[in-house]
């Protein structure tokens, strides 16, 4: 019973290997106006400030598609998130307490959009996906940049994710047929670029 509840509440709408595979134009076409982005292991490796060129290029592509962006991170220090946000030229919120809805809704309000116009992008089911779903937003799960470098509590949560989902990731999607089809379409769109 608990497992089925978690599977429903923690089901991402789209699953891709990395942020670069997300098609900003396709999201814009379906009414998405803003992206709330996780920091660690989504945009940069944990405890890193180094943005890969392809991530910066994807952020610029999302901007050109007319999407607003904001980093929403559970990191306890603005010293972690601020340099990355500054490099990307986007706002941020730290100490988000994900999966709480509050930070997601606050970020949406900051960007001037309603929850139905927002997609949450992150690498963790029990923070990013659950929080985005609870806030009524589209959720996009990406594979973590580096599973070898993670905070200890994140490693524990990954074990729980595997118990609930059996190891969901972009090359082995365990979603409902519609979400699985959307995942394939998103990947196919990314391949044509």
Provide key terms for this protein.
Rossmann fold, six-stranded parallel sheet, disordered C terminus
Summary?
About 45% of the residues lie in helices and about 10% in strands. With about 190 residues, the protein is α/β, with parallel strands linked by helices.
Structural write-up:
The protein has 193 residues and is an alpha/beta fold. The chain has a single domain, classed as 3-Layer(aba) Sandwich (Rossmann fold), CATH 3.40.50. It is built from eight helices and six strands; from the N terminus they run H-E-H-E-H-E-H-E-H-E-H-E-H-H. The chain has a six-stranded parallel beta sheet with strand order 1-6-5-2-3-4, sandwiched between helices. Strand 5, helix 6 (125-134) and strand 6 form a beta-alpha-beta unit. The longest helix is centred in the C-terminal third of the chain and has 15 residues, at 177-191. The chain is globular and about 40 Å long. The termini are far apart.
- CATH class descriptor name: Alpha Beta
Cα gyration radius (Å): 15 Å
Helix/sheet category: alpha/beta
- Strand percentage lies at 5-15%
The overall pLDDT average reads 81
- Order of strands across the biggest sheet? 1-6-5-2-3-4
Largest sheet: 6 strands, parallel
Instruction: Give the strand tally.
Output: 6
Oligomeric state, counting identical vs distinct chains? single chain
Helix segment tally? 8
Q: Note the run of SSEs as H and E.
A: HEHEHEHEHEHEHH
Unreliable segments of 5+ consecutive residues: 169-193
CATH fold descriptor: Rossmann fold
């Amino acid at each position: 019973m608990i497992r089925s509840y978690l599977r429903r509440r923690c089901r991402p709408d789209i699953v891709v290997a990395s942020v670069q595979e997300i098609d900003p134009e396709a999201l814009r076409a379906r009414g998405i106006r803003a992206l709330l982005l996780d920091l660690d292991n989504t945009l940069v490796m944990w405890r890193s400030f180094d943005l890969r060129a392809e991530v910066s290029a994807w952020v610029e592509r999302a901007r050109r598609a007319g999407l607003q962006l904001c980093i929403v991170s559970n990191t306890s220090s603005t010293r972690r998130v601020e340099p990355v946000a500054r490099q990307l030229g986007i706002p941020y919120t730290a100490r988000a307490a994900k999966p709480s809805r509050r930070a997601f809704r606050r970020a949406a309000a900051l960007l001037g959009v309603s929850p139905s116009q927002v997609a949450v992008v992150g690498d963790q089911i029990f923070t990013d996906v659950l929080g985005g779903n609870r806030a009524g937003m589209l959720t996009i799960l990406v594979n973590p940049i580096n599973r070898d470098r993670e905070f200890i509590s994140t490693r524990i949560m990954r074990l729980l994710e595997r118990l609930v989902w059996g190891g969901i990731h972009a090359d082995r999607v365990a979603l409902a047929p519609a979400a699985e089809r959307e995942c394939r379409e998103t990947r196919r769109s990314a391949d044509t670029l």
